[in-house]
Design a protein that fits this description.
Keywords: Signal
Helix content: 10-25%
Structural class: alpha+beta
Number of helices: 3
InterPro entries: Spondin/Thrombospondin_T1, Spondin_N, Spondin_N_sf
Mean pLDDT: 89
Largest sheet: 8 strands, antiparallel
Low-confidence stretches: 1-15, 17-26
Protein name: Spondin domain-containing protein
Shape: globular
Distance between the termini: 69 Å
Pfam families: Spond_N
């Protein structure tokens, strides 16, 4: 009997020590605080030129860059789906009015946070602006029309700037991906309007390079994302 009592007492002591150890560990390691907002400088480096891509048109430029910081459900467009009116007007005319309204609706619903809208840029050339993100809206999407073109545009598509550890990325370079909005069937940069009826879906655009074997050519530019605070 004494041995049993001694065993029970020993187990009680060990259990108490383990509980104290767990409590001490939890007190010593409080949860990490949520990451604060971040301001990013966004630079679009347009490299599209006669030396990089075939059939380079006169007066080549990109329309005013527009986009937003957003949640995962705040995308401006989705490849494989129909373009919104805002994406259609941006891609065909470089007109951001409807797209700006669509972004404002995303803001009202909480899906988008801040808007970025820049200026027209000749290609080759560079344009830069800033935009704020927060932990609830860590993604960035931007678009700009390839001009002249039927309905072609380049984009920064749903770029998440929080890393795997929940910290803001210091710097990142992303190729400017080219897309066809699926709303005009013109085959060349300067083709007359040829409305696609019914409209097709947004799809990657393949442009032949000025030289070299690559079937899709180099990107038309690069997005440089730099945290500035």
């Amino acid at each position: 009997m004494l041995c049993s009592f001694h065993r029970l007492g020993l187990w009680a002591v060990l259990f108490g020590l383990a509980a104290c150890s767990k409590n001490a560990d939890s007190e010593e390691q409080p949860p990490a605080p949520a990451v604060g907002p971040a301001l990013y400088r966004v630079t679009f480096e347009a490299t599209w030129s006669a030396s990089t891509h075939a059939n380079f048109p006169a007066g080549a430029h990109f329309s005013s860059v527009i986009g937003a910081s957003h949640r995962a459900d705040g995308l401006l467009f989705r490849p494989g789906q129909l373009a919104s009116t805002g994406i259609k007007n941006m891609a065909e005319r470089g007109n951001n009015t409807a797209l700006r309204t669509e972004i404002m609706a995303l803001q009202s619903s909480g899906a988008a946070f801040r808007v970025l809208e820049g200026r027209v840029i000749s290609s080759p050339g560079t344009v830069a602006d800033t935009i704020r993100l927060d932990a609830a809206h860590p993604r960035l999407s931007l678009v700009t029309m390839i001009a002249p073109s039927p309905d072609w545009f380049v984009a920064l598509e749903d770029e998440n700037l929080l890393d795997a550890n929940g910290q803001w990325v210091t710097q990142r370079r992303v190729p400017a991906r080219a897309y066809d909005a699926g709303t005009d069937s013109g085959p060349t940069f300067t083709a007359p309007d040829q409305a696609t009826l019914p409209a097709g879906v947004v799809a990657p655009l393949l442009l032949p390079p000025a030289a070299g074997p690559a079937p899709d050519g180099p990107p038309l530019g690069t997005w440089l994302l730099e945290r500035v605070n």
